[in-house]
Amino acid sequence: MGHPEEPGQMIRLSYNDIHKAIQKTAVKIKDEFAPTLFIAIGGGGFIPARILRTFCKTTTEGKKRNIPIQAVGLTLYESLGGIEEVAGTEVVRTQWLDFSTLGKNFNHGGLLGRRILVVDEVDDTRKTLIYTIRELQHDIKVQLEAVSDPDEKERLREETKLAIFVVHNKLKPKTAELPPDVQYFSAVDTPDVWLAYPWECDGDIDEHDRLRSENQDS
User: Fold this and answer.
1) CA 19, CA 47: separation in Å to the nearest integer?
2) Single Gene Ontology BP term (predicted)?
3) Which residues form the catalytic set?
4) How far is 44 from 46, CA to CA, in rounded Å?
5) Rg of the chain (C-alpha set)
6) Residue range of the domain that includes 104
7) Is 81 within the bounds of a domain?
8) N or C: which end of the chain has fewer CB within 10 A?
9) What's the CA angle centered on 178, arms 174 and 184, to 5 degrees?
10) Burial 58-97 (b: 16+ CB within 10 A, else e)
11) pLDDT in tens for each of the 218 residues of the chain?
12) CATH number at residue 29
């Protein structure tokens, strides 16, 4: 979501807007990163991750296969009595990864050897994304330490990659830079304005779409 520097500036987005932006960027993501695991940051990353999966299927033994999606729950914005929201001072983890249900596919802790794409709706301050990447790097390190064979450990280290995809990247100063080995993809770069996503509409969705015509050109 994210708040603009000047209240009142708003861009309303439809489901089709999001779908088309992701579809266009998926080609680049497949060519340049080829993810094998999505990690969706809830709740804004859930719908984009599901749409992206449609366009990034893998092929195994001649069959198209869906890329698995794992979910993490993180909170940055604090609610003030349902009236307004302010940016939180820290990220609060409400849910993290669980690979325990994968059965025979549960190897090396679940992360090693995968090309992991973190998915969220918007890169605003970047605080949530930085937190997610750092936590994943820590988990990867712990899982690598559990691998006893040095050659296998090095192979898994080389094959385990991290990247980020956001639907919108707000062109504003960020709280931190991403590590140089983490690839970054954004579907749309946007000014620091209020982005009204369709899944946040708690009223008439048809009216939400109609009001898109009032979007200011950016």
Assistant:
1) 10
2) GMP salvage
3) 124
4) 6
5) 18
6) 14-190
7) yes
8) C
9) 100
10) eeeeeeeeebebbbbebebeeeeeeeeeeeeeebeeeeeb
11) 444 444 558 999 999 999 999 999 999 999 999 999 999 999 899 999 999 999 999 888 888 999 999 999 998 755 444 444 445 568 989 899 988 766 666 677 899 999 999 999 999 999 999 999 999 999 999 999 999 999 999 999 999 999 999 999 999 999 999 999 999 999 999 999 999 999 999 999 999 999 998 886 54
12) 3.40.50.2020
Instruction: Quick: pLDDT tens for 18-63.
Output: 999 999 999 999 999 999 999 999 989 999 999 999 999 988 888 8
CA 199, 127, 194, 116 dihedral sign is: negative
Q: Based on the structure, what is the number of domains in the chain?
A: 1
* Residue 182, domain member (yes or no): yes
